[in-house]
Design a protein that fits this description.
Length: 246
């Protein structure tokens, strides 16, 4: 009798389904899922597109916010849905980024030179003379060719580039103030991510950057085409574009 019972238990152990599996289309709201076919509602949603970050089954008959926001789907397409009920799995909230055709190394170096000059022209500080000021730094995060400027069957006469960069502004404080020491504590750095379109004129023999009059998020103290005093941080020369061999 004991031997028969052990055999029966062994057979049951080998044929019973795993605890983490369920028949297709039966998982309830909040249960882990990889596709809508596993859920009773038919909707598997949430951030993540691989097996390591499963979605969650949406509850049947749930209420959703009456708004439409962009999501980037797992196949790289932007779709719009309620912010509380995306209805599918997605890479991230927000529109998918367009494919970026990176600029050449030479053009990128010229753009980095532009951002360095802009950061200097946005910096002024008297911190070395018991005063206050701001120091700005800019870092290039991405530069994408938007389109060549020209005519059909003609040499390219320019480039349009979308510039993505990070702005960091650090407040500098010095000297006597009241109430001390609270007044002498600098605020946390102010950071923002910005984008801006710039043009490069030229053709087969090279390109020359058209110097912009302003850059979003960058508080220029003087035009880039002129020299600028940064106070305690020295002098910034005028930005002079160079011919770039692409």
């Amino acid at each position: 009798m004991r031997i028969a019972l052990l055999i029966t238990l062994t057979l049951l152990g080998t044929t019973a389904p795993r605890a983490d599996t369920a028949p297709p289309g039966t998982r309830g709201g909040g249960q882990a899922c990889l596709s809508g076919g596993e859920c009773a509602s038919g909707e598997c949603e949430g951030k993540g597109c691989d097996d390591r970050t499963p979605g969650r089954c949406a509850a049947t008959g749930r209420g959703c916010l009456r708004n439409h926001v962009p999501f980037c789907s797992c196949d790289g397409q932007t779709f719009y849905q309620s912010s509380s009920c995306p209805g599918r799995r997605y890479r991230h909230q927000g529109a998918c980024e367009a494919a970026c055709e990176a600029v050449s190394a030479a053009v990128r170096r010229e753009l980095e030179r532009l951002l360095k000059s802009a950061a200097e022209h946005a910096t002024y500080s008297n911190v070395c003379a018991d005063g206050n000021g701001e120091k700005t730094t800019l870092s290039l995060t991405r530069a994408c060719v938007q389109h060549p400027v020209g005519r059909p069957n003609a040499d390219v006469i320019g480039l349009s580039v979308e510039l993505h960069y990070r702005v960091t502004i650090v407040e500098e404080r010095s000297g006597e103030c009241s109430p001390y020491p609270e007044c002498a504590r600098a605020s946390p750095p102010r950071e923002s991510d910005r984008s801006f379109g710039v043009e490069l004129a030229g053709g087969p023999d090279g390109f020359t950057l058209i110097v912009p009059k302003e850059l979003p998020g960058v508080p220029l103290k003087s035009p880039l085409a002129k020299a600028h005093s940064m106070g305690c941080h020295g002098e910034a020369p005028a930005f002079v574009p160079r011919n770039v061999k692409d």
